[in-house]
Amino acid sequence: MAKQATEDRKEWRASHRFARISQFKARLVADMIRGMDCNEALDMLRFQHQRSAMFLSAVLKSAMVNADEQEADMKRLYVSESRVDGGPYFRRYRPKDRGRAHPIAKRTCHMIVKVAER
């Protein structure tokens, strides 16, 4: 019978809910930092030109501060999970020709970042 290893791994999380950016645009950056060391991920986000990098950088810093408050080893932290879920969206209408109106979706998303020790 195989012995199952039970590792008690601590995770710290932070989130930004109702961020005013499309989840499709934010997922491109969130997928990029998943699994990286936290300091390396912050450096990567600092030099990205996407607007979502600024949002994810703030969420990652918040998760790192949450870990630091509970005396985690800051040099061993890595991004264990980074995900972007869709949030509600605002419906706006743009006037078009002959009295018509076309809908515009102002999308929002929820960004969740979890960090853990290696």
Would you write up a description of this structure?
By secondary structure, this protein is α+β, with helices and mostly antiparallel strands. It has a single domain (12-117), classed as Ribosomal protein L22/L17 (Ribosomal Protein L22, Chain A). The protein contains three helices and five strands; from the N terminus they run E-H-H-H-E-E-E-E. A three-stranded antiparallel sheet has the order 1-5-2. Helix 2 runs antiparallel to helix 3.
CATH topology: Ribosomal Protein L22, Chain A
- Succession of helices and strands: EHHHEEEE
The rounded distance between the terminal residues' Cα atoms is: 28 Å
Indicate the radius of gyration in whole angstroms. 19 Å
Strand tally is 5
Q: Which runs of at least 5 residues are low in confidence (pLDDT < 50)?
A: none
Structural class: alpha+beta
- How many DSSP helices? 3
Strand content: 25-35%
Global outline: elongated
Q: Percent of residues in helical segments?
A: 25-40%
- CATH level 4 superfamily: Ribosomal protein L22/L17
Keyphrases for this structure?
single chain; 118 residues; alpha+beta; Ribosomal Protein L22, Chain A; three-stranded antiparallel beta sheet; two-stranded antiparallel sheet; 3 helices; elongated
